[in-house]
TrEMBL record:
Record-level GO BP terms: meristem maintenance
Listed name of the protein: Aminotransferase-like plant mobile domain-containing protein
Domain Aminotransferase-like plant mobile: 28-233
UniProt cross-references to InterPro entries, sorted A to Z: AminoTfrase-like_pln_mobile (IPR019557), MAIN-like (IPR044824)
Organism this protein belongs to: Linum tenue
Length: 233
């Protein structure tokens, strides 16, 4: 899930992704997941040991595996998000103003945009990635991004692209397209500061967490970066 909520990669944003040490993620959008393989692996996962229990013995995904497969940085600060909202400003709630100041778009907090929406694009500390991606897809159809575009326009495109990739591919959830606004504190920070995080270890922790949930008898779905599990297998 999540690949439809990602803006197409554009070469003009590559310098920003390199500054954030996240340029490798551009290779992972649109990967087809082998559902039978992931199901078979989840059935062999043991949450007590965080290992797959094969006939040949135990095996597990290590931090080195994730680093080699994804080229994400393993050194740096832990990836921690806080939903505590910024202060309200200019008559807008804190998170709404935070998004507006960085992306130049005012996300509606009440009512639905059209009949296909089941909830407002923004509620409390969460924002709809579907709405956000659709808004910028429409914007860039009429104002295509080029190598000659202003730097701030390229940066805006890069940040929306990262929102879709981080939430839709690496830290996806099963039942919702909502992004916790706490992620925006990291994604809207400076590119160099974004590169100071240990993205690979956060990704591995999320994989362990989701496989532990998926191994339970009553659970029928799994989320997270299962494409990494597939590559590893």
């Amino acid at each position: 899930r999540g690949t439809t909520n990602v803006l197409p990669f554009h070469p003009a944003i590559l310098p920003f992704l390199k500054r954030a040490r996240l340029d490798s993620i551009r290779h992972f959008n649109g990967i087809q997941i082998d559902r039978q393989l992931i199901t078979a692996l989840a059935e062999r996962w043991r949450k007590e040991t965080h290992c797959f229990n094969f006939r040949e013995g135990e095996a597990t995904i290590t931090l080195k595996d994730v680093a080699i497969l994804t080229h994400l940085p393993i050194d740096g600060k832990p990836v921690c998000v806080s939903d505590h909202p910024p202060e309200d400003c200019d008559g807008m709630p804190g998170w709404q103003h935070f998004i507006h100041s960085h992306l130049g778009v005012k996300v509606p907090v009440k009512g639905c945009v059209d009949s296909t929406d089941r909830m407002p694009p923004m509620r409390k500390h969460q924002v709809s990635i579907t709405w956000l991606t659709k808004y910028f897809r429409d914007h860039y159809k009429s104002h295509p991004l080029t190598e000659e575009s202003p730097e701030d326009e390229k940066e805006r495109y890069a940040r929306v692209y990262l929102i879709g990739m981080i939430r839709g591919m690496f830290f996806s959830k099963k039942s919702s397209n909502l992004l916790s606004c706490g992620w925006l504190r990291i994604i809207f920070s400076s590119w160099e500061e974004m590169g100071e995080y240990s993205w690979a270890s956060a990704c591995l922790a999320m994989i362990y967490h989701n496989l532990c949930n998926a191994s339970l008898k009553a659970v029928r779905e799994v989320s997270g970066a299962m494409f990494i599990v597939q590559f590893w297998a």
